[in-house]
Structures are given as structure tokens and as C-alpha cells.
């Protein structure tokens, strides 16, 4: 049997062990969230680059269509 002095000490050790486990879980969650955040930032950068490229291609296509329309109007007025 335990003496009365051992009970509080045992209880404190149990609480410390529980807190240690909770801290481990929190640290693992922070690590996982940091990794997920890093991955999302990389994806965001890639998507922003792709978007910029698509916008540039769209502008080029718009310019070409406008040039074709002008040539057609010019041919129409000359013909």
C-alpha cells in the first residue's frame, strides 16, 4: 500500500506525463501545419506563375485578333 505522501507525488507524475503527451501532440500538429502551409505556399506560387503566363498568352491572342480584324477592315475598304 502507498503512504499518504506518495499519492500526491504519483498524481503529479501522472499529470506531468499527461501534459507531456499533450505537448507532443501539439508539437506534431504544429509541425504538420507548418509543412502543409509550406506546401500550400509553393502551390500558390506555381498557380500565380501559371496565371501570369495564361494572361500573357490571352493578351497576345487578343492583339492578334485585333490585328486580323484591322487587316480585314482594310481589305474590305480597299476591295
Feature tags:
single chain, 79 residues, mainly alpha, 92% helix
Please explain how this structure is put together:
By secondary structure, this protein is mainly alpha-helical. The chain has one domain. The chain is 92% helix and 0% strand. The longest helix has 73 residues. The protein is rod-shaped.
Layout of helices and strands, plus pairs?
Elements: H1 6-78
- Judged by helices, strands and strand pairing, the structural class is mainly alpha
**What does the oligomeric state look like here?**
single chain
Coarse shape: rod-shaped
Are there runs of 5+ residues with pLDDT below 50, and where?
Answer: none
Summed up, the domain count is 1
| Helical proportion, percent range | over 70%
Secondary structure tally, helices:
1
Cα separation of the termini: 113 Å
Order of helices and strands: H
**Beta-strand segment tally:** 0
DSSP strand content? under 5%
The Rg value, from CA coordinates, equals 34 Å
Report the sheet with the most strands, covering strand number, pairing sense and barrel closure: none
Mean pLDDT: 92
Short description:
This protein is mainly α. It has one helix at 6-78. It is built from 1 helix and no strands.
